[in-house]
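We emphasize that the prediction below concerns an isolated chain of 386 residues; any contacts that depend on oligomerization or on bound cofactors are therefore not represented. The input was used exactly as deposited, without trimming of termini.
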Amino acid sequence: MTGIDRRRLTAVLAGLAALPFVGRGRASGRAAFASARFGASGAAVALLDADGAESATQALPERGHGLAIAPDGRRLVVVARRPGRWALVLSTDDLAPLARLALPAGRHFYGHGCFSADGQRFFTTENDTDGGDGIVGVWDATAGFERIAEWRSGGVGPHDLALAPDGRRLIVANGGIRTHPDSGRDMLNRDTMQPTLAALSLDDGSVVERVDLGAELRLASIRHLAVAVDGEVVFGCQFEGDKSVMPPLVGAWRPGGGAARLWEMPDAALARLDDYVGSVALDRSGTVVAATSPRGGTTAFFARGSGRFLGLADLADVCGVAAAGDGFLLTSGAAGMRRTGAIGAATRLVDPQPTAARSIWDNHLAAFGDRRQRSAETNRLVKLTV
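Result of the prediction step, given as a token string:
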């Protein structure tokens, strides 16, 4: 099956309409974010203003994972956690349901998706459960999110993905871990695991470039990434090897520029990450990188140009992160949300909305207007002086 017919789409939307709905609209002109959350009342997605206050919510079938906002800011897609098989398209006016992506047999989502630059196509990371290859699903965002193609992801276990600034390539983080829904989250290929970063052509899905981290770091699963306006890719890893090894977990790759490089950290700070980076983001200037560790309860900050470690900021179960003001907004599954100011060796966290601590925020945070804000910074990137 390659798509959803009109009858099935009608039935899907009718089912979505029956889900609980709370809240109306988001105020025009406000900076805004979106995140999945869960709790006693079930799983949901929420729109947030710049102070962290919720302006609309929509119930979800199960816990959500990644979120993608269309370039025009009018649609939001929430993708299920691995090995989920649902992804919902919602209006960003009030989170009203618009469509639900229908996967073919033998596929499940890995949790992330992104739009093409013109908003006409949507891409999702998926698993071929029989063959084990990584898949990128291609959906027509102009026609009810009908599935129109699928491409090989350039590796196994694709997780995060992002559009390159030229709008012609898709950057995919292939974690290297083969799984199967029948085995839960068990790794089925430890002896052959090989994470990669791949650049795919949006013309035909072909892999135009691919790098790995070398044999010594083949157990460092590349899971999340962010792409700067100059094309450099920053990424975070989750190490599946011996706990005593403690390799670097955050690094950068410039497509067309050779090997990926991992950034060094002091041993004490690296140990705090507990072999696990849950999300990465760039600040609005594109010069500072934040890498969260829910296991370690901390966020590491780096200068992108040099890879220099800038410091840690502690927050229990922190994972979601997005650019906000001159720093970042961070969300937690245990301590609500916090905001940073300018990043330095003693980064302070401020609680923008104490009541938000009641929410158990899921893994990722998406920022409205992020593409426009970052594009405006292209001509004024500055070197860090901290």
